[in-house]
Amino acid sequence: MKDFFEAIESLFVDILFIPFDWFRALELESWTGANILNWAFMFIGFAAFIYWMKELKKFNDNNEENRDPTAHSFLN
Predict the structure, then answer these.
(1) Are 15 and 9 in contact (CB under 8 A)?
(2) What residues have CB less than 8 Å from 37, skipping those under 6 apart?
(3) Least CB-packed of 2, 35, 47, 57 within 10 Å?
(4) Could you list the residue ranges that cross the membrane (predicted)?
């Protein structure tokens, strides 16, 4: 059983974390370059937020939502 968990450790430490080791080494040269992955995730999240707000505005402008206080069963 111990060999199984050591194999999992070896997989992550020796293989799957190699890109993160590269980013850690890059941080000494360029903070922005080392955080490019974080910037990409922030951009994707911001784009999704803008898209969602546009969709909500579209439904709000069409008056498709029932805004009666008793419209939802959990408000009764």
Answers:
(1) no
(2) 23
(3) 2
(4) 36-53
pLDDT tens digits, residue range 36-72?
A: 889 999 999 999 999 999 999 998 898 877 777 776 6
Inside any domain, residue 71: no
Cα distance between residue 67 and residue 70, in whole Å: 8
Q: Are 65 and 58 in contact (CB under 8 A)?
A: no
Query: Contact, 70 vs 63, CB < 8 A?
Result: no
Q: How far is CA 33 from CA 10, 43, 54, 59, in A?
A: 27, 15, 32, 40
3-state secondary structure of 32: helix
Positive or negative CA dihedral for 19, 21, 24, 28? negative
In contact, 22 and 33? CB cutoff 8 Å: no
Domain hosting residue 15, numbered range: 1-34
